[in-house]
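ok trying this again, last paste got cut off
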Amino acid sequence: MRFSTVKVILFLGLIIFFWSCKSFSQEKIPKITIETQVFTKLTIRIPNFEGEQPLSQKLSSLLRRLINAHLFVLSLENPPLPGFKTKDYYLKGHLSTKNNKLFLKAELWDLFENKILKTYHLEGTLKKPELSVYTLCNKIIEDISNYKGLAFSRVSFVKRTKKGDELYIMDFSKENLRFLTRAPLILFPKMSPSGRKLAYLVYENRDYILEILDLYNGHKKQFILNGLTSSPVWLPEETKLILTIGKKEEINLYLLEIETSKLTLLTSEKGVQQAGSVSKDGKYLAYVWDKGTGPQIYLLNLQTFEKQRISYEGKYNTAPKFSPKGDYIIYLSQAGGATRLILYNIQTKTKKEISLRGLVEEPSFSPTGEYLLVRAKLKEGTGFYIIHLDSQISHLYLSGNHLLFPDWGPLLF
């Protein structure tokens, strides 16, 4: 499909402008500064499972890594010292296999009360033994805290190389890294709400192409764009996308029906507009609108087309994303050369600021809504960082200057 009369303008220029803006009018909002030392982590001791070595050792190590990736929990390999009461947890596990099946039994102990909290009986396959660990990880997280586990999620990203861009997807555990495609330029990969599909832009043979890849069966659908465009945004039913497309001096928002290739204009105002995220119920679009005085965050009612401005922190606010729970919108605000993450409570209309003391871009919520994945340059280096919103802990998840456009979605298996 070719939009021959449409001149599409890529919003990448906003990223350059993002770091060049210097002056802001400041709004007083609560400020949260990331300070890991003020939070006491929960501790769980997980020695290697008994039975079936070396598989038991491998899966025990994977479980410890996954638990630690939740940031508010510290997983240790050493067993507890006998006779000492601590507030730690202790997991004892035994692994056995039979007829290509895996059987895992584990006991979760409260060491302070010296009693078993939970007993787990898991059955899996030797073909995908990590799935049993993912299940156990999520059960443990939910049994020792008020949070949901992250094990059944995955991350897509672009790796920039001298030979071009490479698109990857992998489990949150960093297992099952999967190469998807290569092109001179790959931009803005976005997973659908179910995690089944991935939409992204490629540059090839002087064309910008919107590609929609079914991650389950490998089927691919392509839409050739005559020019440049910006990040595709999924609607909940996964049969439609909202695109940012430039036409003459205006850059507006369009609704694309994937099966029919029908393109419908959503906005026609002057200025630069960029789609950011659609709410869980599909009723609202969070987007950026620059009328010439700097980009700001707006909500568009997709039924009535009423607009509401929600950002007033300064002259440059961008990258709005709805929480999967539907309770927050996160967006970026730049002030004095530093980036702030603003959490906007949709119900109360109140805001909180997360200051990371560095350059931050491309925020993405975890499928649980309790974490963020961002691309940032912070004290641990440049790469993808995970932020646990409640405990205020951040950690370098994947390191590399050449890694771009992280997106976080559910794991389909």
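PB: full thing came through this time. Residues 130-144 form the longest helix (15 residues).
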